[in-house]
Design brief:
single chain; TIM Barrel; Type Iii Antifreeze Protein Isoform Hplc 12; two-stranded antiparallel sheet; 8-stranded parallel beta sheet; 353 residues; 12 strands; 32% helix; alpha/beta; 2 domains
C-alpha cells in the first residue's frame, strides 16, 4: 500500500496519522496551526473528516437522533453535534495545500458520495472509512471505485461487517485495503483496547493492519506497534483549552511528540529475527564462561573440580568440556588464572573444540 510518498508494508515504519477531526473548533486559523504542529510532532499525515450535518444525518429532534449512550456528547442531537464539529468544505483546498507545504500527506474520511467527489477534486491520495460507516456498503463501493488505498476502522464491526466491507472493495476491483482496530468509545478504556486483534486482522484477512486509537496516552499505540500495527491514528489538537467536541480525548503537541518518539523506539526494539551476532555481541562473548585453572597445578597432577572451574571470562575451553577434562593429568605446571586448553593435557586423541 502506498499513500502519497509513504510505502506501507510489513517491513516499513509505522504510518502515523494526526486526526484533525473537529479540533479546529470552527476556526480555519486553528486548522492551519494544527497542521504545522502535527508536522513538528512527527506525524506523517493529517486526516480530515468531510461531511456536513445534512450529509451525515437529519435535522430531526426526536429521541432516535439524541445521544444517550453514555458518551461525552450525551443530550445533544446528532444534527447539532455535527453542525458544530464539521470542517467547512470551502476550507479543504487550503488545508490540503497547507499540509503539502509542510510535507504532510493529507486525506480524509468521506461520509457520502458528494464528499468523495470533493476529495477526488483535491486529488486525495487515500480514503478512510470511519468506524460507524463500515456498514454503509454503497459508500464503501463508491470510495473503492476510485482506485485509491482504503483504510477501514472496525470499531463497531462484527466479522460479517468486515467481510461485507472487504467484499465491497473487492467487487470494485480494489484490494488496496488496510484494517484498523478501533474501540469506538470517547475516550476508550484501555482495558477494551484488545490489541491482539491488530495481529489477527492482518493474519485473518491478509491486509495491512493498524490502530485508530481513542485511549488516553501512548501505551496502546506502542503496544499496537509491537503487535504489528503499520498505521497509527490519533486525534490531535494544538491545545485542549480551545475546546471542541473531541478536545478531551485528543493529544496535544507535546503528547503526540512523545508518542511518536515511543513508537519509533518500539520499532527499533522489535528488530528482526536474526541469530547472527553483531560485532559488539561477539566481543561481549569475552565475558562468557570458560574453563580456568583455579589453583596452581604441578606437572603430572590430575585436574579436579577444585583446581579447574567454569568462570568468567571466556578465553578458555568451553564449559561443556568440564566433565571431560576431570581426571586428566597436566603435562606442565600451570599457574592459577591460566585459561585451560587441550595443549596442557596428557591425551592421545584431542577432542574437538
Amino acid at each position: 500500500m502506498k499513500i502519497g510518498t509513504f510505502e506501507i508494508n510489513k517491513n516499513s515504519s509505522v504510518f502515523i496519522i494526526a486526526e484533525l477531526s473537529a479540533n479546529h473548533n470552527g476556526s480555519l486559523e486553528n486548522a492551519l496551526l494544527t497542521i504545522k504542529a502535527a508536522k513538528r510532532a512527527g506525524a506523517d499525515a493529517i486526516k480530515l473528516q468531510t461531511y456536513t450535518a445534512d450529509t451525515i444525518t437529519l435535522d430531526v429532534k426526536n429521541d432516535d437522533f439524541r445521544l444517550k449512550q453514555g458518551t461525552i456528547w450525551d443530550g445533544k442531537y446528532l444534527y447539532d453535534l455535527y453542525q458544530e464539529a464539521y470542517t467547512p468544505w470551502e476550507w479543504h483546498e487550503q488545508i490540503f495545500n497547507a499540509a503539502k507545504a509542510e510535507g504532510l500527506i493529507c486525506f480524509s474520511s468521506p461520509f457520502d458520495k458528494s464528499s468523495v467527489d470533493l476529495l477526488e477534486s483535491l486529488d486525495t491520495p487515500a480514503y478512510k472509512i470511519a468506524s460507524f460507516e463500515i456498514t454503509d456498503i454503497p459508500l464503501i463501493e463508491y470510495v473503492a471505485s476510485k482506485g485509491k488505498p482504503v483504510i477501514i476502522s472496525t470499531g463497531i464491526a462484527t466479522l460479517e461487517d468486515i467481510d461485507l466491507a472487504l467484499a465491497a472493495c473487492h467487487k470494485m476491483g480494489n484490494k488496496d485495503i488496510a484494517l484498523l482496530k478501533c474501540t469506538s468509545s470517547y475516550p476508550a478504556p484501555i482495558e477494551e483496547a484488545n490489541i491482539m486483534m491488530v495481529k489477527d486482522l492482518a493474519e485473518r484477512y491478509g491486509v495491512i493492519s493498524g490502530l485508530s486509537d481513542h485511549t488516553i496516552g501512548s501505551t496502546v499505540p506502542v503496544v499496537a506497534t509491537c503487535f504489528g500495527a503499520k498505521i497509527i491514528e490519533k486525534h490531535f489538537i494544538i491545545d485542549r483549552a480551545i475546546g471542541g467536541p473531541d478536545a478531551s480525548f485528543s493529544m496535544n503537541e507535546e503528547e503526540f511528540t512523545a508518542m511518536v518518539k515511543s513508537v519509533r523506539e518500539a520499532e527499533k526494539a522489535i528488530g528482526l529475527v536474526d541469530y547472527q551476532l553483531t560485532e559488539k555481541q561477539l566481543k561481549g562473548r569475552d565475558f562468557s564462561r570458560s574453563l580456568y585453572v583455579a589453583e596452581d597445578i604441578e606437572e603430572g597432577e590430575v585436574l579436579t573440580a577444585i583446581n579447574v572451574r567454569s568462570v568468567r571470562p571466556g578465553f578458555g575451553l568451553h564449559p561443556k568440556h568440564f566433565n571431560e577434562v576431570l581426571g586428566k593429568k597436566v603435562t606442565k605446571s600451570i599457574k592459577k588464572g591460566t585459561a585451560l586448553s587441550w595443549g596442557f593435557l596428557e591425551t592421545t586423541t584431542l577432542p574437538t573444540v
